[in-house]
Amino acid sequence: MDALDALDAVGESNVQLVRQVGSGQWDGATPCTEWNVRSLVGHLIMGRHVYRGFLEGVPVAELRLILQQGGAASDAPVAACESAVRSIRAAFAQPGALERTVHHTIGDMPGRQLLVQLVADCVVHSWDLATAIGVDPGLDEQLIELSYEFYLPLMQKDAVYAYGWFKPPAGTLPEGATALERLLHLLGR
């Protein structure tokens, strides 16, 4: 799957999941123990703004503040999610966006790698949100594989664990595990 197509697919998935959050579910727990449903949706929204900032060269310190302030979804979370999805798609579609060097917390990388990282993050949090609200995440197998292939080399170097973004795997992976099970295991879910 092309990275921009993957961005579109996970964006649509995120919007559909946010639409399914019931009025009584916003304060519910999620697999991300530090976030409730509202905070997780806020992360999906604000995270896209932060990734756009990375792509546009905004200093990391400023982006950390934006992400910290975006801890909860707005009063119109579906519209905010749709807007964030459109905004980040437009940013990555600009000429040269995928080739430019981006200064990220984990190091410099080309825009294309940043795009795949965003997709992978949104795939994992799609599962988190779906699990929290009790629905099927509806994730395409290609999105899951793209995410796994992105995270695997980082996890083998402990790069992402060191930042506390995910936990190391607990236990062993069962034989014959699905792509989603492999991804979730890798990320300590």
Short précis:
By secondary structure, this protein is mainly α.
Structure, described:
- With 189 residues, this protein is mostly helical.
- The protein has one domain: Up-down Bundle (Four Helix Bundle (Hemerythrin (Met), subunit A)), CATH 1.20.120.
- Helices cover 60% and strands 4% of the residues.
- The chain is built from 8 helices and 2 strands.
- The protein has helices at 3-19, 37-55, 60-69, 77-93, 111-133, 141-156, 159-162, 179-186; strands at 101-104, 107-110.
- The chain has a two-stranded antiparallel ribbon.
- A hairpin with a 2-residue loop joins strand 1 (101-104) and strand 2 (107-110).
- Helix 1 (3-19) runs antiparallel to helix 4 (77-93).
- The longest helix is centred in the middle third of the chain and has 23 residues, at 111-133.
- The protein starts with a helix and ends with a helix.
- The relative contact order is 0.16.
Provide tags for this entry.
Four Helix Bundle (Hemerythrin (Met), subunit A), 2 strands, 8 helices, mainly alpha, 189 residues, single chain
Strand order of the largest sheet: 1-2
The structure class reads mainly alpha
Number of strands: 2
Number of domains: 1
CATH class: Mainly Alpha
Spans of 5+ residues with little confidence (pLDDT < 50)?
none
Order of helices and strands: HHHHEEHHHH
